[in-house]
Amino acid sequence: MNPLVNVVVAASLAAPVPTGPGALTKNPIYATGKLPQVTCEEKMFNPARFDSVQLYVEDISDCLEQAWRPQLAKAGIPFSKPRLVVKGGKRIKACGFSGEPYETFSMYCLKNKTIYMLIPDRSLADELNRPTILLSLARGYGYHIQQLTGIVGQQLKAEKKLSKRGLLAQRKRFELQTTCFAGAFLGSVWDSLGHTAEPSSEHMLWVLVNTTIGPSQGSTKNRTYWATRGYESWSPGSCNTFTAPAKRVS
Fold first, then answer.
1. Which of 47, 93, 139, 243 is the most buried (most CB within 10 A)?
2. Closest by CA position to 154, among listed 26, 247, 65
3. How many angstroms separate the most distant Cα atoms in the chain?
């Protein structure tokens, strides 16, 4: 599923957001170094109470802001918080999507800069073993960072000029970068979450990689490569998929 489906491009991007091809290949966010090591304690929640789940999601969103806000400041790019909407139940509607998702996922809606967290009832019971809320929100925030830094705007411009084959290749670069951004955040907060054992981090990366499957998401090998690259470096500078060789973004 493409989280950017059925969205409308914002009418304008506020300066000094980068524009042109350099927004993809030479974005200032790449030169900002590591994300700060944020303390992000993962709080317990009651799966039977939606208000408890919503508070948990909001806490993670606050943690994401603590990590990314100073990074954009280093790049000289204005930061704004995304709107956050949490939807639960069986059948979910949001930003043009309507259906019954099997497990948690996020969508970033460009027309209102909103992250929609779609959390079906059946996915909550397994949340502690497969932290899909944490991982899905980290990806959703990755799209927001791509929007704020001008990457989304230039990506959509580039897509208009491409053949069908070229379009798919370009989208893979974009989506793999989102995965890498999510990995960078997760690496910077992982120790504070209380899952410090190596097998746990490997499992978390496996879940991140294997809950984002689709033609535009890249191969499993490359999703794993970019998720791990971001996780180990903590740095958006490691996520420049737009200058990576084709074999790394296939």
1. 139
2. 26
3. 48
Backbone angles phi, psi at 116, to 5 degrees: -100, 120
> How are beta strands 105-109 and 114-120 bridged, if at all?
antiparallel
Provide the residue ranges of all domains of the chain, joining segments of one domain with +: 38-248
- Dist CA 157 CA 180 (whole Å): 22
Q: How far apart are the C-alpha atoms of 209 and 183, rounded to whole Å? A: 10
- What gap in Å lies between CA 232 and CA 187, rounded to an integer? 6
The answer for residues whose C-beta is within 8 angstroms of residue 206's C-beta and 6 or more apart is none
Q: Report the distance separating Cα 136 and Cα 140, nearest Å.
A: 6
User: What CA–CA distances, in Å, run from 248 to 3, 34, 55, 174, 206?
Assistant: 22, 22, 38, 12, 18
CB 30 within 8 A of CB 184: no
Q: What is the pLDDT of residues 206-222, one digit of tens each?
A: 888 887 778 899 999 99
Kindly report the pTM of this predicted structure.
0.89
In angstroms, the CA 53 to CA 133 distance is: 9
Q: Which among 71, 93, 48 is positioned nearest to 181, based on CA atoms? A: 71
Phi first, then psi, for residue 16 (nearest 5°) are -95, 45
